[in-house]
Amino acid sequence: MNKQNIAKLKMFLMGLEQRIKDNALYFQKIVIKYKSGTKVFPAAVTMDATSNLSMNYNGKIEEFLPEQLSQMISAEAEKYDEIHIWYQERGTKIIVDADAKGVKIKYEDDIKDESKAHNVTSHIGNREYLIKVGQADDLLKEIGILTKEGKVKNDMIRKYNQIDHFVELMQGIIDELSDYDTITVLDCGCGKSYLTFVLNFYLKNILKKSCHFIGLDYSETVINASKKMAKNLGYANMEFHQTDIQHYVPDKPIDIVISLHACDTATDMALALGIRVNAKAIIAVPCCHRELLSQYDYEPFKPIIKHGVLKARMADILTDGLRALKLESLGYKVSMVEYISPVETPKNLMIRAVKTQTENKRAAEEYKQLVKMLNVNPALEREYLGS
Ligand SMILES: C[S@@+](CC[C@H](N)C(=O)[O-])C[C@H]1O[C@@H](n2cnc3c(N)ncnc32)[C@H](O)[C@@H]1O
Fold it and tell me: Which ligand 1 atom sits closest to the C-alpha of 246?
């Protein structure tokens, strides 16, 4: 290749070096083909856990730093007629073709890739999916929604709808954080973390938003399963810790705290953690509500709550109502929605809270009055806020 085109190639590769450093968490690989006549000499570049690169070329593996990339590739390209480079990071591909005629650079968005369009399924029944088959296959296979052949399993349509609806409900929250450079999400009681994997895909691959995920659970089994899944998918922007939510102290600012079906007062631990770290948004789908059931005592309710089933349902409402009001008193704007159909599970309420002010005195007073009237001491306040 001529000197002029080698210089152009080198300039582009210098830009790529910076991109690799900035996007190390999302880097996947670089595939290179050097060509002379009909002969092709392939090379592949991968990254290790310390963000160093290694090149597999000519039967040898050589380790190097990202800032050496442009020099290494362009020096080798001088010996050939053509070079073709495929750079791949999560959600984006860059293709470079250089020869005697010039250097052509093409950016491809995985999600908007026209060549894949015919394989994309965006509808099943009436639902227009955000997480589409044909675009999110690796993820949907890992979660068990797709068969190895890429078909939605019949008995998984309901689950597929649930995860997609979760992302839909998160859209308004994500919009509130649109000016954040990176969004850090803390999932409390993450279990196998399926929903945060999906949210990670949505943020990074679809919205092209830099993001980081932390999952907490005291079960070693689910933490190991989540780590394995992150490794299988190449999602390096996730960390998982085996810990009690109550004892976790984050080492970085947290923007969104999520708690999905965390048992009983574990939801309160998550809400309290979100409040302590001053999270911009807190999302909770509470699970069982044992705590207030044994506490609340309000004379005018007695003729109704003599029926055990009504007493339990009322306890659910009071627990979540007081949680929402406490969040409001601390400056969060709170909305409640039914996350999935109540036919599937009665535990389907999603509390969505977005911090909009430092405090709300009216809500604080209402909370104080209600707690006194019901004669309760809710876990959120009692144990985790210590106020
Ligand atoms: C019903 S699972 C839900 C898992 C996941 N969030 C989901 O929606 O699929 C509840 C999880 O919360 C975890 N958990 C409950 N209390 C916890 C606590 N105090 N600290 C950490 N993990 C907790 C349990 O180990 C379990 O994995």
Answer: 19
